[in-house]
């Protein structure tokens, strides 16, 4: 059994760029950055990774409409590497994340980081389906006290 699944939460490094395939299907590309914080020799270090994201169809249209540079986004997808030959004859490749679902991050000023999870529309692209469904997830407004969690 094989698995090719990517889950990322990060911030857009550039605005989504919308194009169309020769078939007319919309495709959008953008980048996100994720940070990893760790300790080295007692000091806190931060490492940033940059990811190339590609989305197709209705999901591409939604990303193009609602996402912009700096916004936080949760991405579900799969890794795919494209290979091509450059104009000078050299071989090139690029590993991208093909987005299959996303959830937009908190609205500006709408999330203070204190116990309440960000809410936003969620879009999940299903293969071989003509219509995608947009779901809205409502999180409880009450603060969660870690001492009340039974585990």
TrEMBL record:
Record's compositionally biased regions (Gly residues): 107-117
GO cellular component: nucleoid
Leader sequence segment: none
Region called Disordered, residue ranges: 104-135
Pfam families: SSB (PF00436)
Annotated GO biological process: DNA replication
Keywords: DNA-binding
Gene Ontology MF term list: single-stranded DNA binding
Comp. bias intervals (Basic and acidic residues): 126-135
Assembly with partners or alone: Homotetramer.
NCBIfam families, per database record: ssb (TIGR00621)
Name of the protein in question: Single-stranded DNA-binding protein
């Amino acid at each position: 059994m094989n698995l090719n699944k990517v889950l990322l939460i990060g911030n857009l490094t550039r605005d989504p760029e919308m194009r169309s395939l020769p078939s007319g299907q919309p495709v959008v590309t953008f980048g996100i950055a994720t940070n990893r914080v760790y300790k080295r020799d007692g000091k806190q270090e931060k490492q940033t990774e940059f990811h190339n994201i590609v989305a197709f169809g209705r999901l591409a249209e939604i990303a193009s409409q609602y996402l912009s540079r700096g916004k936080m986004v949760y991405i579900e997808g799969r890794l795919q590497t494209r290979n091509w030959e450059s104009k000078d004859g050299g071989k090139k490749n690029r590993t991208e994340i093909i987005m299959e679902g996303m959830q937009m991050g908190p609205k500006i000023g709408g999330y203070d980081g204190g116990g309440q999870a960000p809410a936003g529309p969620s879009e999940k692209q299903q293969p071989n389906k003509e219509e995608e469904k947009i779901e809205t997830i409502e999180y409880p407004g009450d603060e969660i006290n870690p001492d009340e969690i039974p585990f």
